[in-house]
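Q: I have 246 residues here and want to know how they pack in 3D. Can you give me a structure?
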Amino acid sequence: MSIPSSEDAGAVKVRPTEASGRAPILVVEDERDLAEEIRCELQASGHPVTLSETVDDGLRAARTGDAGVLVVDRMLHGEDGLSIIETLRSEGNATPVLVISALSSVDERINGLKAGGDDYLVKPFDIRELTARVDALLRRRGDSRVTRLQAGDLDRDLVERKVRCAGRAVDLLPREFKLLEYFMRRPGQIVTRGMLLEDVWNFKFLAQTNVVDVQIGNLRRKLDPTGARRFIVNVRAVGFKLNADD
C-alpha cells in the first residue's frame, strides 16, 4: 500500500520563499489555534512550516527528512506524540525535536528526553521562547557538522572518537568525551554547572548533584595524569573554563 503524501494526509505545507533561506520546521499539534500561532511566529522569523495534527501524519511528514527541527505535542488526539520520536530514533533519524506539553512534572520531562527529545517546553509558553528554542536546536545541529576540534594541545576527532593531548592518545568514556567536546567548542569561555547539566547531561531542571565536579576531576586526570597542568580550571563562584593555550 502506498503511503499518502503529507498533503493527502491533511498536513498543511507552507513553501519557503527564495529569500528566506531558513530551515523548514514541522509542527505536530492538534490544537489548531495554537498550531496557527506557532506557524505565524516561525514564518515571521523566515522559517517555512509544515503542520500536522496526528501521530501518523506527523510521522509520515517527518520521514521525508525535509524539516530542520520538529516541534511535537505530547498528546495528539489521545495518542502520545513521543511515539513519533521513538520511531524516528529507531530508524536512525536524528532530526532535533522540541517537545511541547501541558504535562509539566519532572518525570514527564524526563520521559520526553528519554524518548529522544532534545528539548522540552511546558504549556502555556511565550511563543517567542518557542522560536528561540527552535533556533537554538538549529544552531546545535549545524555546529555538530564539525568533525574535528583543536584547542591548543588538545585535538579531538568527532568521527573516529579519538582524543590526543600534546600528541598523546587519551582514552575517554562517552560522557567524558562529550564533556570535553563541550569545552573545546568554547575555549576560554566561562561555563556554569547549570549549562553543563542541561547541555551535556540533558537535565532540564535544577538538580542537586556533584556529578559535574566529579566528571571534570576525572577528565582533568586523564588529560594530564601528572597534575602539573589543568586544562579545565575553576572560575570562583561561577563555573569552569578551558585554558587550552596555557
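Q: Anything worth noting?
A: The CA atoms of residues 98 and 119 lie 5 Å apart. The radius of gyration is 20 Å.
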